[in-house]
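Hey, I'm writing a tutorial for new members on how sequence and structure tokens pair up, and I'd like a real worked example in the thread rather than a made-up one. If someone can provide the structure for the chain below, I'll link this post from the tutorial.
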Amino acid sequence: MNTRQPQSLIAYMPILVPALLLTVFFVMPFGTMIVTSFYENRSIGAAETAFTLANYQRLLSPFFLWLVTASFGLAFGVAAISILIAFPFSYLLVNAPRSTQVGWLIFMLSVLSLSESIIGFAWSTLLSRTAGISNFFVLIGLVDKPASYAPGLGALLTGVVYTAVPYAVLVLYPILSRVDPHIEEAARTLGLSPLKTFLRVILPMHRNAIVTTFLMLLVFTLGTYLMPQILGRPQHWTLSVAISDQALVQSNIPFAAALAVFLVVVTLVIVLAVIQFGRKEQAI
């Protein structure tokens, strides 16, 4: 005979409250966005509720295929450069004195505390012709006259990488700090130099962590909004900027919704890949 008393509703509150918040702030808005993406844009600011696939068919046009390619190209470039900087830096930081580690981690957190607009305009000033770094290059004789490096693809990559590297370091640092120091000692005992130990032992050990961090940075870059507008040109705009442009400037809400659905689906696929690689990392 089952003598357990039925639990009250309060016992389920730790589950019900997050589920309710998820439904209200994600499921319902995302569902509305999906429905809107099938509307037909009639005129400026107006949409017909008739079902149509025209908005998704437009995603296959040459212009928006180029936009998607440019967005993912920027995301892959930022993720690759950030990993190349963050992984060796995190490895060196783990092996540095404790005071040095604390100082650098505080600096990383300070960078993350700054808004994207402040960082973007700071880099815009630094790369400008009148008050930028090109004046220093003239002073030391590297160039003949000052030049402006922003807006441009190089300026955009620099700004986004600057904001992405601290995230990568804060993800990789705790993983690398758990490495058993006896592994490196054994590798060096076998005759490997510190560089070869890093390339042949440390890197292969953390390939899943590197892939997970890489995918996380992809999501981060695909969602960047202000940097492409401050440091880039229109041809460097990401999908996030294109969504805002279609909704606020072009007043094409259905197509903006279709772009948003596409971006959310891509992001969810990447997040699922991150979770999968994270499980593999825990299993090792």
